[in-house]
Design a protein that fits this description.
alpha/beta, six-stranded mixed beta sheet, four-stranded parallel beta sheet, 13 strands, 22% strand, globular
């Protein structure tokens, strides 16, 4: 039983007086640092962001807390090996969730896709150990600015007075409609991570080829290749036009230390973004490790 209800029963007993007491259960939105929403924006939204750890060799940093995005990309450029990320453990979640359980509030957690990280599974283990029925853990199947998009919309639902269960139901309805399309400009990091052979990376770099990626069923999928930045912009626009943007939700754009790329693309699709609420995010260390600097894209909910 939520703590707020317990207090009301203690004050009023279990009879008719209790039924007259209006108990306001608050809803809290929680995410992790893979959403790439800035700390300032999280404060504006009233969202708690749990940090995922990024490790450069023996050096560990909590994303967005111990290392800024700018510092991350500087270290990434000098790294001989790709950094590794560490998911939040069940033990860490158990400690965090204990306070949530005791608060009596409903807590909607929107974490990185279960297909990309064990973070959600760790959270579910901790929830089961605690028996915290007030904590909701849907699978977003998304990451970076696509996850940020879902967080933005969940906040609107919270502010409209929806319950935790109602927010989760609506988010799960939106997940299949979320679209993310992005270009990868620097193939160095895909090669370092073993996702692209050295020969393929060299040929693609010489030809100026930019892979176009999307998220499908919680995983990254290549949906095309473009020769040069302008062609990449055109390719992304074509995908967006094929599955038009709904006017009922916000649009998010993200870039990996590439403000100019993002601004140029935003101008290129300005006609598609008219009367849309647009949020621009910096792609941080969790996704930037593999995408590398220069990556840029758009996320939205299709009609």
């Amino acid at each position: 039983m939520p703590q707020g209800v317990q207090k009301a029963r203690q004050i009023c007993g279990t009879g008719q007086d209790f039924e007259k007491v209006s108990v306001k259960i608050m809803v809290k939105i929680v995410t992790d640092s893979s959403c790439d929403i800035s700390l300032q924006r999280c404060m504006e939204l009233g969202v708690e962001m749990l940090p995922i750890t990024v490790n450069f060799g023996e050096e560990s940093y909590r994303a967005n807390l111990d290392i800024s995005n700018q510092e991350f990309y500087e270290k990434l450029a000098a790294a001989q090996e790709l950094p590794h990320t560490a998911q939040i453990t069940p033990a860490q979640f158990e400690k965090i969730f204990q306070s949530y359980k005791e608060s009596g509030d409903e807590v909607v957690c929107l974490f990185i896709s279960s297909q990309m990280s064990g973070t959600l599974q760790s959270a579910r283990v901790a929830k089961n150990i605690l028996g915290a029925d007030n904590i909701f853990l849907p699978d977003t199947l998304h990451v970076t600015f696509a996850l940020g998009l879902l967080v933005e919309e969940a906040v609107k639902m919270r502010d409209a007075g929806l319950s935790g269960a109602e927010i989760v139901a609506k988010i799960e309805e939106l997940v299949p409609r979320v679209r993310l399309f992005a270009m990868i400009e620097d193939l160095k990091y895909l090669k370092m991570g073993g996702r692209l052979s050295s020969t393929s990376a060299l040929v693609a770099s010489i030809l100026g080829i930019c892979p176009i990626i999307t998220l499908k069923d919680g995983l990254v999928e290549v949906v095309g290749k473009a020769r040069g930045k302008k062609a990449a912009f055109a390719a992304i626009r074509k995908h967006v036009e094929k599955e038009p943007i709904s006017g009922d939700y916000c649009v998010t754009m993200g870039h990996a230390n590439a403000v100019e790329n993002c601004q140029a693309f935003q101008a290129y699709v300005a006609d598609l973004l008219k009367k849309r609420e647009v949020h621009v995010q910096d792609i941080g260390s969790i996704v930037g490790t593999h995408a590398g600097p220069g990556a840029m894209g758009i996320a939205y909910i299709k009609k």
